[in-house]
Amino acid sequence: MLDREQALALMHEYTASQSLRRHMLAVEAAMRAYARKYGEDELLWGLAGLLHDFDYERWPDPPDHPLRGVAILSQRGYPPELIYAIKSHADYLPDCPRVHLLDKALYACDELAGFITACAMVRPQRLIGMTAASVKKKLKTKGFAANVSRDDIARGAADLGVDLDEHIQFVIDAMTTIAPQLGLGAPTTAPPTDAAHP
Asked: For 8, how many CA atoms within 13 A lie in the half-sphere containing its CB?
């Protein structure tokens, strides 16, 4: 049986980096939103997002990532469709083409969630009020978040069969629902000291 708390514990066990943990939470939020949209299993899709990079910190080199991770998931009894989706998010595994909707959604959300995070980090209000138009503008700036593949983002939306602008806004909206957990909520200013003690 799928259990989010166990999956979260597994992710934390293998991942110390706060930014990588937040990335997986962001992809989980986007995947859960797409599962709702498509009438799919929200827990299954969410866990694919939550666990897709859990092995990356220990084994960053291909094909160790994701193969070391999927071996662990297999041993722990995770369902084959989740394991296959995680394998298929790596472009360098030729025997794992993205064929199922779950596979395509994970690939489409992964790189984009990372890019949206980078965009949010340079905005005063972070994710709050972010639009697809502002993200598209940053996509055209080659020097911004240069390690993010623009081709992967475009290919992901095309393979999923969604308009790129709509896809970007959809993922922004999904991430915004957990913005504080991602460290991307609107910054708050503390009240003056004397205001706290009238």
From this structure: 8
